[in-house]
Amino acid sequence: MSTDQKPGSISGYGSGGVDSVISVEDVVRQAQAIAEDVTVEQLDALVGGDAYVSIENLRAGYGQMEILHDINLRVGRKQSLCLIGPNGAGKSTILHAIFGFNNIFSGKINIGDGPNKADVTKLSPNQKLSEAGIAYILQDKSVFPSMTVEENLWMGGFLKNQPAEAKQAAEMIFDKYPRLAARRKHQAKVLSGGERRLLEISRALVMNPEVLLVDEPSIGLEPRFIDMVFEILHDLQHNEGKTIIMVEQNAKKGLEFADIGYVLVSGEVAIAGKGDELLANPKVGQLFLGG
User: How many domains does the structure of the chain reveal?
Assistant: First the structure.
């Protein structure tokens, strides 16, 4: 327990402190109580134009178990969307469905805008990356610890036609991030937590994707590294034009970053709004922002 924390208090869902333990079941019940009737028209309005990533009435899960129930989602080109909610709400399941990691029972996933919109629902993960420009940045500990930083980046280009193309893309990453360049011959296992996360993000960039699916970017990181990671993601969105869909347990940090936020409860979108609107929503704050 930190010295400035009140006795008997624990960390809240996102940040801050609460005076009593709230179970996941209690959070789900309370979140269901404040859920709104979120319409497709509302989701379209949050984008403010043509969506670059759109999900239509998606039902998906694992094996025969349905986790997502008629999910709709919209995010525009160069926008960011943060998914928050209690454990088991289906946040990562959405990322898995977009990338092709689970079973889709019905519904559709589209990538692109205008005449370039394409149905990618049935594409494999390799096809999602190479043909649709979608990259998945996994949670912590996805680097190859015994490989060097350079070799890890080369692995990010495994779908390139020639190994030389992956190496050329890695050099562009090193030019962009001198911190990694200084470690290029070091084994990944000696990197700090922040450097590992930077490597995970950078490895996904080797294929130059348009859409980044980012799963828990702050997990396991010290505060100074969390800030660094969100600065990198901000740069990728605003300076390189990437579209970002993020799951973030630190709800406050995620909503501060994102243009749009969805609150998921029991596999459905319970609340949707601009990121700053959800930050200011006292009901959302009570459940997910620590007070």
Answer: 1
